Amino acid sequence: MTLDRTTTPPVGTFPPLSLPAPGIHALSNGIEIIACNRGDEDVCRIDLMFEGGYYTEQKPGTAALTLLMLKEGAAGKSSEEIAESFDYHGAWLQTSASSHYLYVTLYTLNRHLDTCLSLLADIVIRPDFPEKEFTRLKERRLQQLLVQKEKVDVLASETFLSMIFGDKHPYGRAVTPDHINHITTEDLRDYHRQHIAPGKCRIFIAGKITGKLLDNLELHFGHTWNVPSVDSAIIPAFPIHRTENPIIVTHKENALQSGIRMGLPVIGRENPDFFALKLLCTILGGYFGSRLMSNIREEKGYTYGISSSIAAMRYGSYLTISTQTGTEFTRPLIDEVFVEIDRLRNEPVPTDEFITVQNYLRGDMARTLDSPFSIADYYLSLKANDLPVEYFAQQDEAIRQLSPGDLLSAAQKYLVPSQFYIAVAGDKNKIPPLSLP
């Protein structure tokens, strides 16, 4: 067959998208297992998800340090022995903390499940929290914080979140060296007892799942892990205190660039307008061909990159626009952002642009279905946000049903310039006065 390379092939349309239903299992101690059994390679990923995160911290920084210390010594094994064992067996371990959850993730070859899951259980259930390793880890973390505090984008981000939520709220509170210095190994043990427990755990497995994997999970995390539930410390209510000043400039002496964060509180996923706002945010700055990139990067040359996104948090969502620019371009860049917002509020999105972004979002969703690991990531996100599996198809359907008129209405309703907050970090002496439109 000869291909005619002079004729553009037809472009098809996506059929309605849906997420495959996960396999559901349970261990003898009640831990739920959510499984994505796909793929031909003899590899799998195991995610342990625990309720906790930095929202539950009594001392800021405790959640992340607790997770990092799991690999520094467990069940009598040193950090070197743990690292060497994972390396030898071709496995990889990572940990992370979000606002409300803790995650421990293991990638391993199926033929090494016995060894790697046994080691994973030691790390998660029987950490030693050795003092020498903790001292080293704290010093490393303190150095990281000192480096981060020198970056204008970090300073702008921290200031913006404190403006939206208040600097005492977990979402708006920045971890400082002083916080780290006051954390002890006993704090980590307390946090571990309260949150790394069967009653707060879900397990997600993805890849080529065998009976051997399920048997190993039962052996190491099922009938042998029956730690009585520890009453967690009472988590105080954290009221949101937005700043009265909508514009704050954080001074960084002799900074050549300004870090800029702009945005405002917005609706959450439970609101029927959320998908229109998400598509609108994508048009504004959610992909490389967005309006902010086309105007501020390509035409004006004010920045190498600018983006907008929506963070849908459990206790409050917000839209943020993020960028850095030369100090002399700080004011004109911000002005151009509001020019683009004004266009969205007053002019319907052209049909061709609307279809492009609609297809972009649906294509991004379709990529979720490419691999068992990306599907498992979506399962994790659904559980973290207390959403059903059907939400994936509902989101796709909602995006398909939107129109340019819906976006115009959403822009007029939610992108109100007078309600924006602006956080800039840079050399105050070189940044002209800033104001909202």
From TrEMBL:
Superkingdom of source: Bacteria
Domain Peptidase M16 N-terminal: 40-155
Gene3D superfamilies reported in the protein's UniProt record: Metalloenzyme, LuxS/M16 peptidase-like (3.30.830.10)
Stored Pfam families: Peptidase_M16, Peptidase_M16_C
MF (Gene Ontology): metal ion binding
InterPro entries the UniProt entry points to: Metalloenz_LuxS/M16, MPP/UQCRC_Complex, Pept_M16_N, Peptidase_M16_C
Positions of the Peptidase M16 C-terminal domain: 183-359
Name by which UniProt lists this protein: Peptidase M16 C-terminal domain-containing protein
